[in-house]
Design goal:
It is a single chain. This protein is an alpha/beta fold. It has one domain: Purple Acid Phosphatase, chain A, domain 2 (4-Layer Sandwich). Helix content is 23%, strand content 18%. The protein contains eight helices and 13 strands. Strands 2-1-6-7-8-9-11-10 form an eight-stranded mixed sheet. It has a five-stranded mixed sheet with strand order 5-4-3-12-13, covered by helices on one side. The two termini are 25 Å apart.
């Protein structure tokens, strides 16, 4: 993705049908109007279907994988972990939350093979799934593959059980709103927001480089505006729909929550933050947030529909907590290919995060927890274990 270019934006998937939100959005970052909300409501009226739906028991389970991040010969243990998590948890929806592949592919076919390897655990079990893009998914462009995120999105949307929505004009290629219908009827009971957090900052902005700053990309104001307007439109049509949000690169607030402060990284402050924010899980590396804070968290506070915002990116962080009424957290890194902890413990935090929903519970969103490869009896040897050959590509 070119940070300076305007890339696609996402529609709304209500149980599987994409509804363009172009009419919902004011151009650029202009303020919303009452007419915008009215237009958005009309868009929703013709977009409800039942692709994502609570079970007859009123339950719905989400599994979040992160950073599968490998080439056409994916480490076989990544797939073993995904297989075992899906077989054990029996999720209704699975997300790969960014850095689906890395820069190893040399051809467009190898890009497709790398993606195909890590979506087969869902496709083969007929489990609905989606992905967000991370900072590494376009790395193979430097090898001449010409596989942009937009082209990858076209490819993955050909899978039978993929529920990513189409490209549109907003920055990024994996922004989506997915609405989960209740067990009876098509009225949405819960939502899933997916945002594309981009790749890297430009080499310079305003003649200044990013020395001393984290040089990762950031969720753009137009994406925040898209979320705000789509959220308003959803509330206008269906009432406020509680939701979870997923994106790859963490927010500044993921750092602030851990330390209980904004501009320090003092571990002495962490003990108080644990109590204040009910933090659980591990932090084994810095929070590698985007270079700029574009205000997504304050938009979440304003709208009041997102119960938790979860990222990946930092493979060996697995913590979560409650930050002023909104959960902020990580899913652990899933892939056995990229970096992990040091030495013999390299793979000790390979895992996934599970979210449990119950439409009969007052909050609907009832629990989240992490599961790890080491608990499934998967080989933790630090040495790489690639596939002998890529999994067969689908006919599409």
């Amino acid at each position: 993705m070119n940070p300076s270019s305007s890339v696609p934006r996402r529609g709304i998937l209500v149980g599987g049908t994409a509804a363009a939100v172009t009419g919902i959005l004011a151009a650029g970052a202009q303020a919303a109007t009452a007419n915008t909300a009215s237009t958005a409501t009309k868009k929703h009226e013709s977009s409800v279907s039942a692709s994502l739906k609570f079970g007859k028991d009123g339950k719905f389970k989400i599994v979040q994988f992160n950073d599968t991040q490998d080439g056409p010969l994916t480490d076989r243990r990544t797939l073993e972990l995904m297989d075992k998590v899906i077989e054990t948890e029996k999720p209704d929806f699975v997300l790969i939350n960014g850095d689906v592949i890395d820069g190893q592919p040399k051809t467009a076919t190898e890009v497709k093979q790398a993606i195909n390897n890590v979506v087969q655990p869902m496709e083969s079990r007929k489990v609905k799934w989606a992905l967000t893009f991370g900072n590494h998914d376009e790395d193979s462009l430097s090898n001449g593959t010409n596989m942009t995120e937009a082209k990858m999105l076209d490819f993955i949307r050909g899978y039978k059980y993929n529920v990513n929505t189409r490209e549109d004009e907003i920055f990024g290629s994996s922004n989506s709103q997915l609405l989960i219908s209740g067990s009876r009827g098509n009225k949405p009971k819960f939502g899933i927001w997916l945002l594309d957090s981009g790749r890297y900052a430009a080499s310079q902005i305003g003649g200044q480089d990013f020395k001393g700053l984290k040089n990762y990309d950031w969720i753009r104001p137009e994406q925040v505006q898209w979320y705000r307007e789509a959220s308003k439109a959803t509330e206008c049509r269906h009432g406020k729909v509680p939701s979870l949000m997923f994106f790859h690169i963490p927010l500044w607030e993921h750092h602030h929550m851990w330390y209980g402060s904004q501009f320090t990284s003092n571990e002495a402050d962490h003990a108080a933050a644990v109590k204040k924010h009910s933090i659980v899980g591990e932090k084994n590396e810095a929070v590698y947030s985007g270079a700029f804070n574009s205000g997504l968290f304050t938009a979440l506070l304003e709208r009041g529909d997102v119960r938790g915002a979860y990222c990946g990116h930092d493979h060996i962080n697995s913590y979560m907590g409650n930050y002023f009424g909104i959960e902020l957290g990580y899913g652990p890194g899933t892939g056995f290919g990229p970096y992990g902890k040091n030495g013999a413990d390299k793979h000790q935090l390979r895992g996934a995060r599970v979210f449990e929903l119950d439409e009969n519970a007052e909050a609907i969103y009832t629990a989240t927890r992490t599961v790890f490869a080491k608990d499934f009896g998967i080989d933790m040897n630090a040495a790489r274990q690639p596939l002998d050959k890529p999994l067969p590509l689908p006919k599409h």
